[in-house]
Protein 1
Amino acid sequence: MRNITLQIEDGEFFTLLGPSGCGKTTLLRMIAGFTELEAGEIRIGDRRIDILPPHRRNIGMVFQNYAIFPNLTVAGNIAYGLKARKVGNAEIATRVADALALVRLHGYSERWPHQLSGGQLQRVAIARALVIRPEVLLLDEPLSNLDARLRVDMRGEIRELQQRLNITTVYVTHDQEEALAVSRRIAVMQAGQIEQLDVPEAIYRRPTSLFAAQFMGTTNVLTGTVAPRAGGPARVRVGSAEVEVADLGAREGETVRVCIRPEALQVLAAGQAAPAGMAKLQATIVGVEFIGALSRLDVELPGGSVLKVAVLDNPATLARSGDSIALVYDPARVIVFPQGAS
Amino acid sequence: MKSGPFGALGFALLALASVCLGSKVEAQQKVVIYSSNDDTLHKLVFAAFTKETGIAVEPISAGSGVVMKRIQTEKDRPGGDIVWGVSRSLLDTNKQYFSAYLSKNNDATPAEYREPTNLWIGNNLHLLVILQNTKVLPEDQGPKTWADLLDPKWKGKIAFTDPANSGSAYSTVTMLVDHFGGGDAGWSKVKELLANTKVLNRSSLVFQGVGNGEYPLGISLEYAGYVWAAGGAPVKTIYPADGTIAQMEGVAIVKGGPNPDAAKVFVDYVNRKDVREMIIKDTFRRPARQDLDLSKLPGNMPALTSIKLLPYKEVAWTDVRAATLEKIKDLVQETR
């Protein structure tokens, strides 16, 4: 972990996103109080918490190593933290019922963990974190063990719950789609540092590093040389093709990495002229994968570079391997990085 | 569930490293414990310990690798008094950081679960077992041996923890390599077993998955079967008839720690007979000491003498761990 400075807003759904080993869980554990800081501070509002033990920080946690207790009922599990805080029985009963209602498990209080599905158990874990009325909620990859469909459903539930409670939430995940879907802001992390911190749209559309560009969704990365400016638009030579990009300043001869997302490339219908302001590329289709709403095309540029293109399904057009096509794109959607970028 | 004016979370925080925690003032009224045991065991034992002795416990809870690394880093100014819940191989390779103590429970603990010069003492024994959910898989249809798990009928039906994330899963795989003949023959059979497994990220998901019936079978540690059964789950713990291993976990006093007297009290406490009974009752951890009659205690766990135990080359497999984990990773990929 290197120098990190962060400010998370009141009621914000803030996500730490990155691959395994990037430090996101370590950072979360520092907020929780399970991992020490070497220097620096953590505050909730004006209140310094890094000097407090975990149970005095008023933070609710849904952590991977804090599993549901299989030998307590659902109510017993949720009440666990309240009992530790010496809350009276009548109040415990009310608060447990409220917490169950929040996660839509009303009526489940006397069930045993073995009677619940994985998704329901995860909701119990969330209820257990919320019942102590924390100021901040921390979740460490809460959905990673659920199947894909359930993950999508539950992330929506978590998001909706967070908005309803307006509780400041820090969420850790390695799943970029999940982060994009639920977060107000994301901190993309790599090797103990924050690479980029912004709202999802900004990170996806204007990544500030090659790492962020490749980590979020899919992108094409071409290596080329900046062509001499000849009064026209800026271009990068990739093989024997020339890719038009937004203005690069005077960088002729420099080797660069050009990123363009598959959905930014559109296939021009035969005979159609390129719309104003759009750049054009000739290519040959070398592969087609029809997956319903989308078709993924592999297309080869002159000189051999291959691009991935994603097109929405259109029954009127038929893309076939071997076809020559024209691609159009908005040069403003191309991101260019220096060759040594990571 | 309000999040009022103090909800904004601002922080400027910096690098992670170990921090010295010792306090000279209340020196003997607290004990700092670096532990890789799980939360349920901590909550049970620490509360009871403090209640009886008046010594407060300051726990630092992390995986065993992290715990040992911290002790190594702090060697010139140790912040911890006790290390608890780490494996024999980790205890042995880090003996130089411990101070010898002849515990009151020494005689009750078999020599094989003690360091000869008293630098550490065994605390829990973890048997590697097969869990079966008897609601989704009738009891008599379950496997009886590790070899039975190779049957293709179990494909996708055995929950297993990723050995990259679990010491016991790593031990299971390596134990089976040797048990199935060693070398290529052993690995070939292990691959067949892996092909039948659903590999999950952490052990608690295996326990939970068998507990709630998502998987009929799981490869697990002994205590998990009993803990889930105690909560009413239809889980049976199978001790493979072709043998298994008992992995020892122990406790040691950190040399130069801030509260050495309190540390000794803890070592004596955590292996005391009545304390071990309390631990079994709530968490079903099998003790290293062999003088408890388990048939009279909750769970009715079988005596160690009744279980077929296999030899296990713990030191050798620990030495090649990194390379072996890579090999296992490849095999798991190939069998998805």
Protein 2
Amino acid sequence: MKLTDPLDTWLSAGLRDFAVPEAAGSSARVFSLDYPPLSGDYANFPALKVMRPDKTRYALPLFENEIRILDALQDVQGITPTIGLGFLKVSDGSWPAEIAPLTSSLRAEASASHLTGTADLYAPEDIEAFLSELQVRTAEQWLAAIILPRRWEDNLYLRCDSGYTRGEFHRSFTVTDALKAALQICDIIAAAHKKNIVYLDHKALHYYWNEPRQQVFILDWNIGRQITNHNSEEVYAFDVIQFSARALHHLLTGRQAPGSVNVGPNKPEDIQNAPDEYEPIWTYDDHKRLTDDELNVLGEAIQGHYETIQGLAQDLQTLYNQRQSQN
Amino acid sequence: MLKDLILRAINTLDKPDPTEQDLVEIENELSAYLEAIATDRISEPIDFEELEHANRLLREVRRERSRRLAEAQQSQQTDKEIEKEENSEHQQPVNVSPDFGDDDTYDPLRKFLSSSHDPEAEEWMDSAEEAFYAGNYQKAIPIYEKVLQIEPGWARAQEHRNEAEEFMRTGNIPSVALPPEAGKAYGKAQSAARVFRYQTALDYLDEAFASLKESGINRWREGESLRQDLENQMQAHEVYQEGLSLLSQGDLQGGLSKVQTAASAVALPEYVDKASEVRDDIAVLNEIADVLNLSGNIPPDKLAESRIKLDSLSIKYGEIPQVSRLRNRMDLVLPSVTETLIEKIQQAKRQGDSASTLKSAKESYTVAIESLTTLQTLQPENPQMRLLRVSIQEANREIINLEDELQRSNQAINAENRFFPRNTHLISKGVRSRFPQDPEVLDLKRSLRWYDIVLYGGGGIAAIIVIILLFFGGRGIARAISARQLALTPSPTVTATITLTPTITPTPTITPTTTPEATETPDYTPTSTPVITGTVLRNLWAREGCYESEEATGRIPIDGVVTLISIPERVFDDLNRECVLVEYRAEEDTVIGYVLLEDLSIP
């Protein structure tokens, strides 16, 4: 098996790739994994998410968290499921820098293909065995890794962020598309809430739009939490506000709600300390793009009027139906 | 077909160093096929998974081509820079994969992602947009102009420059386009104005104007309009407060005038409603005065209504002069009105008591009760009211009971035997005796006629049968006794007693000798028949015969006790009235004669 191109330094939209500095600097690195048993018949190389060697202490609980959450959500449509687990120990070579492989030479420079070492792989169903070894192995300089399907689709951050679209994203990402994607995200969050899991790290960067299937896919659950206290309604409500202020606002207006946690390598405490209410501020572009009803729903969402994701989904469905009826 | 293309793409990419020609060919074929699918020009069913792989591989192929092109472009740029700055080793990073130009027809995002602008213009544009969205239009306009000098066709720059200029020139800046600080202050001013804190609102508005001035904006129509509005509101509020003060002092007309002025100035619902309320109250006071000044008798119900309204206004405004005047006048007219009202109640009660139908009785009692309510309003402490109420309530309750009786009777008669409706007869006894002329009672009585016929007819027949039975039974018994006596004659003991009878025979022999004293015979009669006495019911004359055509034998006073003298036959006068022969013993003499039987009371 071989680690090849980095996947965490760039994103694609349509037929073009973009270097995305916001994706770098987190607790893990992500590379394309060239390993035939997991590549299928059509060279569909999966992604390998491995903890950063210099941040193992910080990364360890996040990895454990993500593995448990993905295991619980294995059957939920729209998540990016675990297809394997592993421990890596690099014996030779150094980890490449965070470089977007947008030229042939940069590709070579950014590739991890020169790394050599040992890998112990586990099937997803061997999760308990894997987790039982996690602490010890990490202490012994092994790096935990999660193998996931590679998200090749358009990243919604590129499709909607005004920094990339110069306010003209109505041409590539209509409000109808945005509402459709938001509704699907709501379904995924609702399924997670049903299993007592909150996502919390809602940023457009984590959502991908699969055009053939017309389906949103979501990844990166390491900041999410499993709720053990069943009466923690406020935690779920906070998850709804974070989704509204960061993702929904971004999808509908091209930017996050003012005051919300910026896109970047966010830490759990950044999210936990985020405000639980945001003041709606609309620009000319917002008024041009969105109807009054849409502005109202979005405004209420970021002010915390929706206590459940189902309530928000219901209003988004109404807005989606209105848009559909206008077409 | 799609699967073949996928496999070809994989093979091409799998090569260590695929040629540009191979990459272009497979990219064109894949993109053409995917476009045909997207535009529904291929009818063959497509598997989602294959479609995904095709899209993914198309991107991989394009990515490889982009990398090569970007590499070549970067090399050229580096060479140029080296020529320009021989000692520069700095390499510009590539942030976006290169655009392939107009032949890149498939990419659905190309139109918006491709940047065809001059880099310098883009840089200026970013600054201009930043200033524009910060509300700093004075700063944004010249920067937009710089952008337009470099790229005159940049529509967005032109549009925003025009908008910024329009804002500066006209002052028509919508609140969302205000500089953030001014926008916040303006929002607070609006909030304060909504809760009538006008001075605070004005302070915030001044703050907003100050922020605008800092941004170089000297005109802001919305703000000026709000300032004007706030000043009007403040003045109107003052006038309104003066109006309220006058109202509390009892000057309703003066207060109304002020409140109305405030309402016409700013048309706040609160002012308009208050003006309308005061106007209505004044109208009510006038109405009460009209009622109290009515010539002749004041209708009690109108007076009662006026009293309620006056009490209500008194609570609202206190004992202001207008209310006091009306109350004094009301106290003057009240006694005569209540007196009339009590008479009316009593009359209605009497009518109800003597009513011949249920309906009219009920109507009368209803009138009485209504009048009582009016009396209660007018003079709650009237001493007669309690007695009247009790008696009317009782009478009304009785009517309700009788109505109930009638209703139950009507229900019962349908369930009972029509020839003998005994229960109906019993239930309806009260209502039949109280309202015999009521149409419904009459109907009921018609339905009960068979009951009387059956009851009295049956009783009569039964009595006759009993009499007949007694008659024949008595005769039978008598015959039986007679037969028994005859059968018992031979008994020696009894015969001996009968034998004594002939020994009396000598007594008749004495009778002839004593013939002149035959008057004693009557003395003998009473011993065998009981003496019957009677009392004379009026002063009358005893006569020699029956009755008035005969000569009087003596006078018998009223309550005189007479003894009936037996006569062999019953005697009757010309009018077929029966006479009896009586003896009346007065103190001095005795009157014997015939009197009419009807003038006697015989115990």
Protein 3
Amino acid sequence: MSQSVSGVLPNNPGASDDHVEIECRSVTSGYLGSRVLHKVSFRVSEPSVYVVLGPNGAGKTTLFRTLAGILRPYEGEVYIGGEPIDRQSSRDRLHYLTHLDGLPDGLQVRESLEFFGRAEGARSQDVDRVLDQLEIRDLSAKFPSQLSAGQRKRVSIARIFLRERSIYLLDEPTANLDPKAAREIRELILKLSRDKVVLYSSHNLFEAREIGR
Amino acid sequence: MATPNADYTSRSLLSVTVRRASITGRFYLVYGSFISSLLGVILAHFSAASFSASYPLFVPIFGVVGSMGGLVVFTSDRTKGVLEYLIAYGYSPRRLFADALLTTMALVGVVMGISDSASLGVYFAEGNPVTSNLVIGVGVYAVPMAFACAAFASTMGVYWTTLSSPRQGINSPVGLIPFIGILPALVTLLTIVTLTLSGPLSTDTLLLVLGSAMGIVAFLVIFLVAGMGRFLRRERFLSPS
């Protein structure tokens, strides 16, 4: 991926630096020395849904992992809210979701949410709120192996609503879901992430159009 | 706008991870605790001399087997993307590695606690005395060696898991690591048995063999832990799927 995201994510040249939520400055990144992203630059300021569209292997996941601070860029810098991504305060401004459910083995749904809630400093009441908000309270006592793919995804998404953040990085969150479940998940994400900066990656043009409406 | 949480990284997941490892690795935990307790109790009941001589040598092996839940959880977390989410939350790979190691240590503690309580309980209930061999065997060798071997197995397992593609079953790291983990204890046991064939072992020789074994395992563990930052880059903690 070489600056190809610039066409999708506006550089917002008129935006003041005070309001820049995500800034990617000439970032080169990849895995174990191999370079997947080459000098990618963009800025995102206004709360909205931004779709990162590209075929499989284009580097969308690498971009999202770099923005989330999971991968360290070989060159360039990533700033979240004006601060480098390696600062905890930057990480605390964003939520990250992938196509992987990431539900820990050996924990029931409620315990899974408490596990991640603990990791990000949420409270027990937050878990209760999210269980109701996403209508998954009836799944509370189930283990991941007892859930359908759509239910697992719903629980996985519940995690990102435990605490309010200003930025949501959603990397193909509906991958591997059937069309009906995928639409439900997209609607849920859009409904719950109003007034936020949402970066949503997809390789599906139909999905990109729908989410970017 | 999110409110930054100052004490974020102090939020330990260790207790939850230990509980998960106990549940997910319950087969290993029950097997390790039960078999070592059973053998210990039988030996303590029927032959105090045999108990003093052999219990300390085999119990570390079951300590390693019983603690595999820590590695099971780590491997599963990597494959399912849990580690990736935790890194995004700000947990460092080093901390995730430390959690896996500490979880293993906690499980060894459970196995050793159950086994030692049952076996030594029967031994003393039978009216047997505290001997220097027993004190050296259990206190100086068995307990530290069980922890050292489990740390060795866990560290090797983390390396193997993160440096390879996920595999299932007996051919996976979780399937094979117990065999690697028990090697130091097994080699020590065989060395002592071999030395015993040529005559009774003096306490000095016994201490030398046990101390050397412990030293080698401790060195390997320290080497692997210290090399983590160099060999296990953060990309290795991400799910390959």
